[in-house]
Amino acid sequence: MHAQDKMSIKVDDIAAHEDVFTWTSTHSISGSKIRGFAVNQHEQKWYLTYAFESEKEKVSFLNQSLTGAAFLMKGQETELPLPAHEYGFDMHTYLKSHGAQGMLTVISMKQVLQPEGVTGWIAKQRFQMEKHIELHFPLSLQPETKALLLGSRDDVDPQESRAYQILGITHLFAISGLHVAFLTFIFYQSLLRLSIRKEVAVWCLLICLPVYASLVGGAPSVWRAVGVVEILLLSRQFHMRVAIQDAFAISLLLYIYLQPGVLLQVGFQLSYVAAAVLLFSSPFLQAQSTVFKQSFWITFLCQIGVAPILLYHFYEISLSSFVVNLLFVPLFSVIILPINLMLFLFTFILPSLADILFILYEPLRMALTMFILKLASLPHQLWNPGKLSNWQMIVAFTGVVGTFFVLELQYSFKRLALTLGLPIIIIQGSLYFDSAIEVTFLNVGQGDATLIELPHRQGTILIDSGGLLRFDQSAWKQSGSPFEIGREVIVPFLKGRGIHTIDTFVWTHADSDHVEGAEEILEEMNVKEIHVTPGAITEDTLQQALQTALTKNIPVKEKMAGDGFRIGDSNFTYLSPQDTTYEGNNDSLVLYLKHELFTALFTGDLEQDGEENLLKSYAGIQNLMLLKAGHHGSNTSSSEAFLKRLQPRLTIFSAGQNNRYGHPSPDVIERFKDLHLPTLTTADVGSIHVRYNQQVMTVQTSYEKSIKKRDLSK
Amino acid sequence: MNCLICSTSFIESASWQKLFLIKPADVICNQCRSKFEKILKTKSENEWSGTIYEGALDSVKSFYTYNDWMKHVFQQYKFQLDVELAKIFVEDFRPLRQVQELIVPIPLHPEMLHERTFSQVDQFLIDANVPFKNVLSKTENRSQVGKTRKDRMSTELLFSVQENVQEQHIVLIDDLYTTGTTLHHAAFALKKAGAQTVRAITLIRV
């Protein structure tokens, strides 16, 4: 595991900023906050966050087009949050990809200027179109129409969005090059029909395309397509014919020159690579005898081409996409997009007709959504080999380019076994080589989530899933898609490691900071079995997760002291609780792991009483290698007697930064110091990764690069 | 880029081989390219059975038919001496770079070469970067044109072998295959000089 880079943005000179900022089009209002990029008077871009003071203020922001509007803002530069782990969302990269200087927390905001200039005007049109769609379209159709016509994807339902990912059809909801070509064609033909001279029509296109690009939010795919068409048209106007691949290269270079950060954006990478694949494979594609064969190969080549990029960023690719796209690409480009365009037009000129069409179209579209969700719920649609390392990326891209050559040179398809099969085998196979046992204490803020990975992928055990204590908020402050620890921290880590199956998911006890995220894990992962402490299943905090387990047919088993299981050379034993009445922390399900010389104890929220009971019943357990301290290092756990007996060589406190409980308690830290027992806290060092291989224990943390080796043979 | 045949400017198409500089840029436009007619299946030859030349040539493969378009282009190449046109067929001859056999072009008579300034067969190989060896030399400067099939089949041996070809495997290269006299004579001479196998590749089959 590679540790994350330390932030390069220095925070020594944190100063209050007061400046006039102009909002860019990249901003969003969600819950009680507005976030996004704005440019100050020195042309510096910053990422701003601002919490509204009142519902009234939020509504006033929601009801105006902000892009191009200038505000006098007071704020403070804020240290960028570090990624929770190496596969976590990285704010630093995000800001860099948008060319932003840093992050400001805005304290007060006062509008000084209405949106100005061409971009301001265009943004206003976009805003009004969005409002128009909200006013005239049925609620269920709005997100799609906004996405297809205006490139605004904020409203897409997360569940549907996930289904699109599983099927590999997310790209259909973005404005693609095909889309731009389609609209350009319609526009140009209409102009000619209106008996406008070709020369004039081309100039119209030249002017309208950039306006269109910025009207639809200016995603990289749109600018790419528009850029290429502009270069081709312009060169033709000046009687220098430029080849399409040259126009493509010019647009690429120009894009990178104007906005270097864009190289880091996934949308940019996918868009340019997919376009390049189609462009350079044109001799092969044109040689196909039927339209069906051609569309099959278009889908196939695109998916193959972008696969390494998808694996790098999302750690998984959709296998069904190869088939599903054959149906969905024509469906969306020939039927759904034109229908949306038509409906949009009718809502302006013939609203009554539009209403009738909505009555007909909405049920059909709903049925399609149901079909998509059903399709996505089928198992085994994803290949998840984890995040590709640099050498794996080289293997993957070599295979991809090799495949293009095999097809272009009309070699036998048998050679595809070499160019496609071999990289897949190498990448998948490398997962099984590691002979280490690995334990990761994930940085889930205030809470616990511990992952145990056995050597050679023999098994995966997840202990707790972190979680948030949710407080009731006024309705206006609630976000449509609230932050979820399970989905946004734990699942990406599992996927990044190439894990899609959890053999045993342990719920130590029923507190929110241990199990609130469990439901999301059950939804996204293939969980074989759940172990829970006796009596806890009646607790309110577990009900949602239990319901999900029930619908997914996952057995939930109560376990207590004495129970255990064995996978390969690894022995797992539960040491607590010793009774079956659930009374909270002291009834935490405590797991003891022994693998060769490696021993670890995961205590959940066990407190002093529980520790004493454990010491009494299991006198043989001592000289521990790794301990997860009970109850996040609270003063009520990790008693001296317990530590003296166990003598853990490394102890982990899983606690959140500046948590309200003051975990880990200074007294406890002192206790460990006095006994010369080393400790690490997730709040300070991020996720903690412990590896044990051939009698050597290595510790790596996500905030720092240093690796501590502990040779256990000494 | 201007098309070598029709001179109109055309837009280069993209391909992976060109991107990785494995394949040179196109020299003619797609329209002109599409007028050539490829031969997909070679017909088996038995007109020479029963003569002494039977079995001299192991196989013959040709790339294109001699359609009007080819006649026109070939005229421009061979008789108007437009040597650049050889580049059109680089792709066809390029695979020969990989063969293990000895590549032998059908030669021109030295006088003819002097007149024409270039050998139209060698030129294909030169442009395609195919290594070859001039093993044969022409014994008389008599063109085959204007002779009847019978005349052609019964002429005396047209070539002599200048170098040792013992135990060699040979690919003969020629521009046109009409009756096969030239190739059969050459193959016969080569076999007689000890060549083990002789096959032939021609650009055009009439």
Q: Could you characterize what this model shows?
A:
The complex is a heterodimer of chains A (714) and B (206). By secondary structure, chain A is an alpha/beta fold. Chain A contains 24 helices and 25 strands. Chain A has a nine-stranded mixed sheet, with no helix packed on it. In chain A, strand 9 and strand 10 form a beta hairpin. Chain B is of the alpha/beta class. Chain B has two domains: 34 residues, no CATH class; 170 residues, Rossmann fold, CATH 3.40.50. Helix content of chain B is 28%, strand content 17%. In chain B, the strands form two sheets. Chain B has a four-stranded parallel sheet, sandwiched between helices. Chain B has a two-stranded antiparallel ribbon with strand order 3-4. In chain B, strand 5, helix 8 and strand 6 form a beta-alpha-beta unit. Chain B is globular and about 50 Å long. Chain B starts with 15 loop residues before the first helix and ends with a strand. At the A-B interface, helix 15 of A face helix 1 of B.
